[in-house]
Amino acid sequence: MADYQGKKVVIVGLGITGLSCVDFFIRQGVTPKVIDTRKQPGGLDKLPADVEYHTGGFHQTWLNDADLIVSSPGIALSTPELAEAANLGVEIVGDIELFCREAKAPIVAITGSNGKSTVTTLVGEMASADGIRVGVGGNIGVPALTLLTKPHDLYVLELSSFQLETTYSLKAAAATVLNISEDHMNRYPLGLEQYREAKLHIYKNAKVCVYNEDDALTLPLAGKDARCVSFGVGKGDYQLDNTNRVLKVHDEKLLSTAQMYLSGQHNYMNALAALALADAVGISRQAATEVLKTYHGLAHRFQLVYSHQGVRWINDSKATNVGSTEAALKGLEVDGTLHLLLGGDGKSADFTALLPYISGNNVRLYCFGQDGQALANLRPDVSLLTVTMEEAMRALAPKVKSSDMVLLSPACASLDQFRSFEQRGDEFARLARELG
């Protein structure tokens, strides 16, 4: 446990994570200061009265005079104000680093461009089913520091590349990088390799490293070693046998995919990764298998929200990057026409990776939002460009027939037109019921 007594602590960024940091330091007997660049950040009304705060920009004097800055993962370390403080020798960490210094129970750490929320939830459900007191959080649900307020036997954390950039003390019992594809390229000006290095930081000091046999970028930088366990399609320690549609562990059949609610190759990969992590930390195989038979999946992740007259309306609004949309389309079987909704803020991504999945004759594209034009340019012959998702859905509704699928898998962030991907998904579901 670290000692913060007498330290001048500044928290940058409020919201629920910032508030969890404030609460953490107050429990340590330290009253931090808070900075948020927004004028009216969420959580301002919940700050204790004795906590000084500054909103609407940075407060450089506070930053430079601090002993410790706890920065929101949404603010890059290269931000000039943070860089100035760092050059003066101020330590800058994130909330996950604070958590790792305090946590007594083993940690399962999960990252990747796509699927991490599903895998994190699965491992948490598996541990719970086995009677383990498990705390699930990080980049999903509960802020990590809040988990410290109750006793746990195991922690399962979803971690973003942003969070990993300011985490130095993680020693995971088991860690995984599920996949690597272009995302947040506006944050990583040096490209995919810079983003990958941030993700692979999760393996440092991990006991077990679970990597994807189908994605060489998920291997530790030093290559395969004794800590490594793999999952993949037709290969790996944990594998999907596509011919017989079964999940195997070390070549032994464990579960038929027909016994699972989750569907799609990407979800079978998520299941295998979760199994590997569960095995690594001693969760019983029986508990893990039962969860795979009963788990229905997360909202906004390839979620069937409406089915009427043979038409399926699928909400995959969580597909906020190209790799996630690729995962949804890979191996997708549609008897009729696929009506695919694409659009939003592409975060400087290259959309051409989608071309192999949208080249068929039974695909129609409906593109909207900030990068709608760039997406429509992939296949102008089958694309309709609109300003909003609602306009796109009203245009496609009269065209759908039995055996068709309407899929929102936008390959983009939502913030150009929505508060969040959840709001975008909820709006899709509402319109599906109205138009379908």
Low-confidence stretches: none
Mean pLDDT across every amino acid position: 95
Instruction: Provide the gyration radius in Å.
Output: 22 Å
Categorize the overall geometry: globular
Task: Tell me what you see in this structure.
- The chain is of the alpha/beta class and 436 residues long.
- The protein contains 14 helices and 20 strands.
- The protein has helices at 15-27, 60-65, 80-87, 95-102, 116-129, 144-147, 161-165, 192-200, 265-280, 285-294, 322-329, 372-376, 389-396, 421-435, and strands spanning 9-12, 33-36, 53-55, 68-71, 91-93, 107-111, 134-138, 154-158, 174-177, 208-212, 228-233, 238-241, 246-249, 252-256, 303-308, 311-315, 338-343, 363-368, 383-385, 405-408.
- The strands form three sheets. A nine-stranded mixed β-sheet has the order 7-8-6-9-10-11-12-13-14. A six-stranded mixed β-sheet has the order 15-16-20-17-18-19.
- Helix 5 (116-129) crosses helix 10 and helix 13 (389-396) runs parallel beside helix 14 (421-435).
- The radius of gyration is 22 Å and the shape is globular.
- It is found in: Cytoplasm.
- This is UDP-N-acetylmuramoylalanine--D-glutamate ligase.
- Pathway: Cell wall biogenesis; peptidoglycan biosynthesis.
- Cell wall formation. Catalyzes the addition of glutamate to the nucleotide precursor UDP-N-acetylmuramoyl-L-alanine (UMA).
